Amino acid sequence: MMHLQQQFSRALGLPLTSLHLIKENAYCFIYQAHLEGQPVIVKKYKGADPHLAEMEARAIDFYHQIARHHQDLIDSRTIAFNRENNILCIQYVPGECFSRLLYRSIVDRRRRQRALRIMTILGEFLRDLYETTRQPGADTDAFIFEYFHYCSRRLETLPVLGPLFFPGIVADAERLSHAFRRAGVAPSFIHGDFVFKNIHVLGERVGLIDFANTNARSHVLNDVYNLRLALDNMLLPASFKAALLGHFFDGLGAHAFPEIAHRFYYEYHRRRWLMLKIRSRHPLDWLQAWRGLFGFARPFTPRLVFQS
User: Fold this and answer.
1) Average pLDDT, integer, range 109-125
2) Fewest CB atoms within 10 A around its CB: which of 49, 105, 160, 236?
3) CATH level 2 (architecture), domain 2-91
4) pTM higher than 0.70
């Protein structure tokens, strides 16, 4: 680890100390280190293509422009980026993971009220992000449709389960994509992985981490239904979930998005989530998939539109 610390310090031009690995995913190694006594995050992206690292660096700096002047948000920024070595150093976002706070809120009324306030802040943040970055007349990123088709195909081609639970969803994905394009839905910037594990809470403030999946031409409903599905999957009292969603939608405000936008992004995340869970090798993921398949992750119906 000392060799890596020295290598990263040279590449970034920073005197890093106490480097240690936090996690590894398909795209990068994630480390925590210290810089002049303060914690930082270091990401070493795999491969030689700097596109993903550059995209995350730009997204973090965009978030920084919003968060540094926002009383409810915890700031973060890109400290250094070495394009040649695909290494990114990011300001650490302190606080408690929001999912942990939610589970602790089950038996603690004060934490529950705090969680509700945080949900309102998150809704307000997405509202402001959408209103600031929406691009009337622009096209949604082609990747969104490609990944939707990919998830649908992976489900329909499952042995046994595909013909039983997902017949015809590839063709349905093509129909939904076509209808969505025809509706001319204005795209906007999204976080791209807007779930509770990527939200830190410190007092009454929130901070976002992991901007690796941001997209400048998706739609706020992408983040909305991602968070909603994550909440549905949590083992929390139904009344608490309803209250959390209610406060979130209060913060988000009233937007008259066409039904096809709701249907498309709900199905996008439903199929993505089911694909990842069913094709996982972890038994807990399989159990969650079955629970969702027969419960909260059923096909879209209009009653799901901003229903709390």
Assistant:
1) 97
2) 160
3) 2-Layer Sandwich (3.30)
4) yes
